[in-house]
Amino acid sequence: MKIATFNINNVVKRLPNLLEWLAEAQPDVACLQELKATDTAFPAAALEAAGYGAVWRGERSWNGVAILARGAEPVMTRNALPGDPDDRQARYIEAAVKGVLVASIYLPNGNPQPGPKFAYKLAWFERLIAHAQGLLESGHPVVLAGDYNVVPTDFDIYPTKNWKDNALLQPEPRAAYRRLLDQGWTDALRALHPGEPMFTFWDYKRNRWPRDAGLRLDHLLVSPSLAPRLAAAGVDRGVRGRDNASDHAPAWIELE
Predict the structure, then answer these.
(1) What is the total count of domains within the chain?
(2) CATH number, domain at 9?
(3) Of 243, 255, 216, the residue nearest 27 (C-alpha)
(4) Residues 126-185: pLDDT tens digits?
(5) What ranges make up the beta strands (E) of the chain?
(6) Boundaries of each Endonuclease/exonuclease/phosphatase domain copy (predicted)?
């Protein structure tokens, strides 16, 4: 079973890129973030024609998350992260697909920091940690996939000091990510590739893609029952270099 995560950075604008990648990679499950489209604008018909059922939660201009399933209809279990009924941002969706519970996560960016956006990022992270604990205690096989907007360590970014004040690298979100892992989740990309940076994001500015000035922001965390079944993991880097590409590349795992 192949499960992928892809910050598509506007699903309507980059639909041809998405369809091309789906045809090539054929993930069984694909978690999307940054749809930047309303619910009615989501290209469900085109994805269905490509063989994918979908559940999604859109938002005009910003955010938005979806879960696609090849040859199946995902059964949505949540369309929002619990813990704050006043939070209307479309950043979390969860569905059962072929016996696995999968979440598509778009954690807040948090810039500029310090400030209200950074405070929202940290509060959102606390809600995710609380919900993830409940998922672990349920005993279900779970994959938490998405754009976490966290560079876990300095090994997960190209050598630079330009990002030192960025919210993605601050001690607080890094500590929150570590606390999440300490619950018992396995960071699949890092577990299977301990000696490689495994970048998933290259900013459009300053020629960062051609010079491989990347960051690892997109993570797939697997629950303890799934960790022994991890057979492979990777990043489809070439997708980032195509015309009209997202600034992220898809990351994926394969489960036996």
Answers:
(1) 1
(2) 3.60.10.10
(3) 255
(4) 999 999 999 999 999 999 999 999 999 999 999 999 999 999 999 999 999 999 999 999
(5) 2-7, 29-33, 52-57, 65-70, 75-78, 92-97, 100-106, 142-147, 186-187, 218-222, 230-235, 251-255
(6) 4-248
